Amino acid sequence: MKFGTLLIHNGHDTDPATGALGTPIYQTSTFDRSPQFAPSGLPALPALPAGRLDYDYARSGNPTRKALEDAVSLLEGGTAGFAFSSGIAAIAAVLGIFSTGDHIITAEDIYGGSYRLLNTYFKRWGLEHTALSEVTPDTIRAALRPSTKALFIETPSNPLLKITDIRASCAAAREAGLITIVDNTFMTPLLQRPLELGADVVAHSATKFLGGHSDVLAGIVVTKSSELGKRVYAVQNGLGATLGPWDCFLVLRGIKTLKARLEAQQKTAARLADFLSGHKNVATVYYPGLAAPHQKAVHDGQAEGPGAVLSFKTKTDEQALSFLGRTRLAAPAVSLGGVETIASYPIKMSHAAIPPLERERLGISASLIRISAGLEDADDLIEDFDAALS
Questions:
Q1: Which fold has domain 55-256?
Q2: Choosing from 26, 55, 111, 286, which is the catalytic residue?
Q3: Per residue in 286-317, pLDDT tens?
Q4: 59 belongs to the catalytic site
Q5: Which of 24, 31, 180, 274 has its C-alpha lying 20 to 30 A from 302's C-alpha?
Q6: Is 162 part of the annotated catalytic residue set?
């Protein structure tokens, strides 16, 4: 099947018990296990439905959650999927498979929540990491230690949309025996499938494009191997940071419209990027579709589109604040990937946890705004952005 069809027909599109086209919401905390303890010598019990004894307690498994986990695992080309209470809970669970004294390699330009997690909780726990300004096979090899266990990247990165070559990075990591983890939130499996490019683990903030309506908080992890899946599940089940059945239903609903939403949002993002790149008060635009030739070639070779997220810097800090105060159609807000256009201010929102001097060094300045294109008419957004910037 084509990918757009797979979003709808993923094995959980029809309820086997009733034929319902919506996945049932199993709003329960526990499950009846009496058939497991049936006394011997009694007449044989009627045949049990398939999976009748697969569940015991909802922290360990829930049919609605399994439907979501199976669906995203299928879309990413993995063997096991796990749904978490948030995107950062998903990242924490993946990092939780490592031990005190282990070392991982990361990119410098990553989501601020991931930065905070690595530099506070896991640093206290004794998990070490080295952040690279540019992730290449050479920089990966140079950063290796005897204790290095993993490579963790985002591409495109947040918030400067830097491109990392997934194939080349995974190959270098594999040579060193490392696990490669890719945050695929910006692209989704519709546009980019890192496991097919050599990655071992993919993580998502499903709050964003997978959910798609700014009404749910969720995270997803998909592993390439069942062995890695068992390690992630042990952390998930032990910590209990699981996604509730209603939220699983909402993400499953969002996935059905992912292709229609993201393709339209991507077209709008490309038009906004072109408009902003020619505006007199804009200094720089960051967008995979406008990247330098080498970076664009890398991105085009591993993704099926530039995505719906872009960032730009105004020529002065005051112009950025003025834009956020004057725009009528872009909500100044945290998050991205919803049906409404969102203008995020990284130094006060997604990357506020990074110390100011470090933010400046990374290029995350007071003039930087990140845009997640929504489903509004592109002409209306351009008119609104022009008025807000001028």
A1: Aspartate Aminotransferase; domain 2 (3.40.640)
A2: 111
A3: 999 999 999 999 999 999 999 999 999 999 99
A4: yes
A5: 274
A6: no
